[in-house]
Amino acid sequence: MSEKKIPYKIYLEENEMPKQWYNLRADMKNKPAPLLNPGTLQPMAAEELAPVFCEELIKQELDDTTPYFDIPQEIQNFYKMYRPSPLVRAYCLEEKLQTPAKIYYKFEGNNTSGSHKLNSAIAQAYYAKKQGLKGVTTETGAGQWGTALSMACSYFDLDCKVYMVKVSYEQKPFRREVMRTYGASVTPSPSMDTAIGRKILEKHPGTTGSLGCAISEAVEVATTSEGYRYVLGSVLNQVLLHQSVIGLETKAALDKYGIEADIIIGCAGGGSNLGGLIAPFMRDKIKGEKDYRIIAVEPASCPSLTRGKYAYDFCDTGMVCPLAKMYTLGSDYIPAPNHAGGLRYHGMSSTLSQLYDDGLMEAVSVKQTDVFAAAEEFARIEGILPAPESSHAIKVAIDEALKCKETGEEKTIVFGLTGTGYFDMVAYEKFHDGVMENYIPTDEEIAASLAKLPKAE
Ligand SMILES: *Cc1c(COP(=O)(O)O)cnc(C)c1O
Q1: Dist CA 165 CA 171 (whole Å)
Q2: CB-based pocket (< 6 A), ligand 1
Q3: pLDDT tens string for the chain (457 positions)?
Q4: Cα 269 to ligand 1 centroid, rounded to whole Å
């Protein structure tokens, strides 16, 4: 084993950087279930997806046998602007907690979008450009994905139309202006611009929106505008593929210093950062080479893994998208205006859903006020002001470190610190003023939404 002194922050050298993304599906024994056509209930063929998605991305989406995909040089060049992201040892936090555990976090907030979303945005914009498209449409919840995509589109000179969940549009005017700085147009969703938006507003007047609604609107605009396709920042297999860069860098950094992780923790909205972070570790686990505890953390207000059902469901509220088999709360589920905007999605990536169903991964849900308490503790001791989404992982990393304190175990904990929270100050304000609510859906509410699941096996 190497005797190298482990730096406080581990960066990779250029020759150590990943040159390929890793497709975990290639090594999964039980493959994630295919997307189904909502009309015929048959697996979606590439031709059927072509009006909605970019060609090359469809290939990536449907490929569950190719383990590695080359990262195009143009994307590697863009990655150079903000990658590698550091793997940081949280010494101060360990000290404060008086834990024998070693805590590391992979920090993805060092770019203007403030999150890991840029890793996939730049890839998706690249393939859209390569196909000769004019532009792309998308939805954004908290705003990180929209910001990341705006940056990527301006880099490749593509038009970018963003449908932003209304509650975030109102709470985060500065996010909107960042997107407009990069040249994107931003519309609050549901809007009156689309047929589906008008329908949703009629059914739920005054709704604060949801990712599911915004997806429906963005898809409608993409399929009715010439030279446009729709892109999505989470959930899809292709996004997990691009995000594998997080896990590959993390693993390379750990291996470089002979560090063995015991527990890997990530927040889970649609599952992209977690899917990316765990990919190479899960590979070892599936192959029986290593064992890790892998923990997905979700908000108690939107608990798809811990309280949802593993079933085929629509990816969007408007029911225009293909059906995906996933842990879901039902596509009709509109979460309470919770501040963890990026975690307000009713379903979970089908890859992570399958891994969870196979018992290869654990899941826990955490209450919002506990998340903000952890966020504040982390900010005060480690300096970084974390995004509320990321703070779900912080909360559970702290819990696990405190368990080590009780048992005296020197476990190595690695968690994904997906982004910064500068645009989440309204939520932090509510927490500081003691008016933050812990909304937890009742069993009846979840059952009512699940009763509307499509019938498909
Ligand atoms: C979008 C987002 C998430 C959640 O999305 P996943 O696809 O589950 O990774 C988490 N953290 C931040 C900062 C985000 O922007």
Answers
A1: 10
A2: 115, 117, 142, 144-145, 234, 267-274, 342-343, 387, 389-390, 418-419
A3: 445 688 889 999 999 999 999 999 999 999 999 999 988 999 999 999 999 999 999 999 999 999 999 999 999 999 999 999 999 999 999 999 999 999 999 999 999 999 999 999 999 999 999 999 999 999 998 899 999 999 999 999 999 999 999 988 988 889 999 999 999 999 999 999 999 999 999 999 999 888 878 988 999 999 999 999 999 999 999 999 999 999 999 999 999 999 999 999 999 999 999 999 999 999 999 999 999 999 999 999 999 999 999 999 988 776 777 899 999 999 888 777 656 666 777 889 999 999 999 999 999 999 999 999 999 999 999 999 999 999 999 999 999 999 999 999 999 999 999 999 999 898 999 999 999 999 899 999 999 999 999 887 6
A4: 6
Structure tokens at 192: 């009156």
Question: Which atom in ligand 1 lies closest to the alpha carbon of residue 343?
Answer: 4
Cα separation of 371 and 457, whole Å? Answer: 36
Look at residues 150, 117, 128 and name the one whose alpha carbon lies nearest to residue 53: 128
CB 68 within 8 A of CB 23: yes
- DSSP strand pairing (9-10 vs 412-417): unpaired
Pocket test for ligand 1, best of 297, 343, 371 (most atoms within 8 A of CB): 343
The structural domains of the chain, ordered by start, are 7-17+74-114+244-450 (3.40.50.1100), 23-70+117-230 (3.40.50.1100)
| Distance, CA of 452 to CA of 331 (rounded, Å) | 8
Residue with tokens 């909304």: 439
Cis peptide leading into residue 84 (ω within 30°): yes
Locus of tokens 């089908």: 350
Statement: the pTM of the whole predicted model exceeds 0.85 = yes
**What is the CA(389)–ligand 1 centre distance, in A?**
6
Cα 296 to middle of ligand 1, angstroms: 12
